[in-house]
Amino acid sequence: MAADTPTASRRRWGSTVAGVLVLGVMLFPLYWMLNTALQPESGLLQVDPVPGGLDLSGFSKALSDQGGHLLTSLLVSFGAVAICLAVSAPAAYGLARFGLRGSRTMVFGTLITQMVPGIVIANALYNSYVDLGLVNSYFGLMLADASLGIPFSIVLMRSFMVSIPGEVLEAAEIDGAGPVRVFLRVVLPMSRNSLITSGLFAFLFAWSDFMFALTLNTTDDVKPVTLGIYQYIGAHVGDWGSVMAASVLSAVPAAILLVLAQKYIAAGIAGGSVK
Amino acid sequence: MTTSTVTAPASAKTARKAAAPDPARRRLRRRLAQWGFVAPAVVFMLLFFGYPLVRNIVMSFQHYTPKTFFTGEAPFNGTDNWSSVFQDVLFGKALWHTLVFTAGSLLGQFCIGLALAVFFNRRFPLNGVLRSLILLPWLVPMVVSGIVWRRILDQDTGVLNTFLDTVGLGGQTPWLTSPDMALLSVILVNVWIGIPFNMVILYGGLQEIPKELYEASALDGASAWRTFRSVTLPLLKPVITVVLVLGFMSTVKILDLILALTDGGPADATQTLGTLTYQNSFVELDFGAGAVVGNVLIVISAVFAVFYLRANRTEGK
């Protein structure tokens, strides 16, 4: 291993080339999405392998048609993240620390929720939402989208909070801090990485939600971008350029957040997997 | 909301009994405060996961019509929904498609994901960069990926057929428009969607396997295939189980992808239990029939979960 022979080195670079090819195949659909978005004039015709120039008219059309839906998605997703973290962070701490009776059952129940198909939830939820007047409301969709992230967040943050040294918490309690204070002033700051990781995943789940948006809305009042694009292909079959431009735009906020949160996520996942 | 109802009495008591410390009451107050941390999540999950399960069972015995939402009337109709769903040819088809779709997707995702995980487990330049870039498709919502693929797979102008035509492999394949091809195409797209997840988790599992075992195996003169079968696979088994179980749970209930690619067509060739539930309830507004199909979906998931827990327990002993 110490002295790389030329053949060994060549074989390694050979692996790199193979890896690049694999990546090329896997990412091709994303490239094609961008490529089609930059050729809005191609319409229903064949799309050139490389865009001839920088034609952004597809993007400007997509922005004017879908800009509002992008904002709706942002609002709903951030709302869902807030609800998700507010509900799951205290629960994760409680399950990690307090040794309450039934803690194991609750963790197990959290995992079991992953078994319930979303469409079954929507089926029952729609009827309750009609009764409660939550259909076509931002808050209703936020709550439903938060449910996508809560089980995952509880499990992730709990596995992180289990590893906070007990002495730190005891020291705070001896100083006279109650459980709420200890949680807010000590536990939350120490769990920053897992909190950010959970928040990011909750955002991704809510952002990419299509099913609740489709089933819990009957009017155009609350229309996230996933639903907007889906209905777009019904109405604009010939206009693939702007459909694809809207698709590119739908990936942008998640990409920005991922870049911003990158270093916390690696730490959040690594910290969680220790225990 | 729940936090306040649980902790409020506790803090009210704090003021009253500051004078007389009572250990038993103090412990109770502490317990109540501790439950206050967990209660909101428990209530939330009961409302959003427990309640729908129960409500679906009830709904499957009720007669829903488009008028129900004006009149609020959904009379009980015994087992009418169940018998009409089970007699429907479409239900049998959807059940079969769901099984084929799930088995095919898992097989493809897992095999390719494992191959890539093993590949990336070797050391070579740019390994880390390439491995992270493979996760990029996660940034695109699944329904949007489906729409992109719909364009790629278009029979006349899609890039896949154009490519196949150029290299002389036909190029007139009706990927999504022929009832014989559509299910296969949908499976292929779902394999593409699942590969990064399988790869990441399996790669993590491979990293946990001690390097010494490979060295020992190499000293014994074992072939690469032998090492893979006798060292890698047995040690990877817990991770493999997790990947397959999570994969099953998310695949069997698929909805987004199929709606984006084919809307269940052509001629119901890609109708699954998920899309059938959606169609019954939200297109035809027959929520009773939708609930029946949904319940079948839950039973399939539950049976699978029981098998998984059983397998886990015997393994642990």
TrEMBL record, chain A:
<dbReference type="InterPro" id="IPR000515">
    <property type="entry name" value="MetI-like"/>
</dbReference>
<keyword id="KW-1003">Cell membrane</keyword>
<dbReference type="Pfam" id="PF00528">
    <property type="entry name" value="BPD_transp_1"/>
</dbReference>
<feature type="transmembrane region" description="Helical">
    <location>
        <begin position="240"/>
        <end position="261"/>
    </location>
</feature>
<protein>
    <submittedName>
        <fullName>Carbohydrate ABC transporter permease</fullName>
    </submittedName>
</protein>
<keyword id="KW-0813">Transport</keyword>
<keyword id="KW-0472">Membrane</keyword>
<dbReference type="GO" id="GO:0055085">
    <property type="term" value="P:transmembrane transport"/>
</dbReference>
<feature type="transmembrane region" description="Helical">
    <location>
        <begin position="138"/>
        <end position="157"/>
    </location>
</feature>
<feature type="transmembrane region" description="Helical">
    <location>
        <begin position="195"/>
        <end position="216"/>
    </location>
</feature>
<feature type="transmembrane region" description="Helical">
    <location>
        <begin position="105"/>
        <end position="126"/>
    </location>
</feature>
<keyword id="KW-0812">Transmembrane</keyword>
<keyword id="KW-1133">Transmembrane helix</keyword>
<feature type="transmembrane region" description="Helical">
    <location>
        <begin position="12"/>
        <end position="34"/>
    </location>
</feature>
<comment type="similarity">
    <text>Belongs to the binding-protein-dependent transport system permease family.</text>
</comment>
<feature type="domain" description="ABC transmembrane type-1">
    <location>
        <begin position="70"/>
        <end position="261"/>
    </location>
</feature>
<dbReference type="GO" id="GO:0005886">
    <property type="term" value="C:plasma membrane"/>
</dbReference>
<dbReference type="InterPro" id="IPR050901">
    <property type="entry name" value="BP-dep_ABC_trans_perm"/>
</dbReference>
<feature type="transmembrane region" description="Helical">
    <location>
        <begin position="70"/>
        <end position="93"/>
    </location>
</feature>
<dbReference type="InterPro" id="IPR035906">
    <property type="entry name" value="MetI-like_sf"/>
</dbReference>
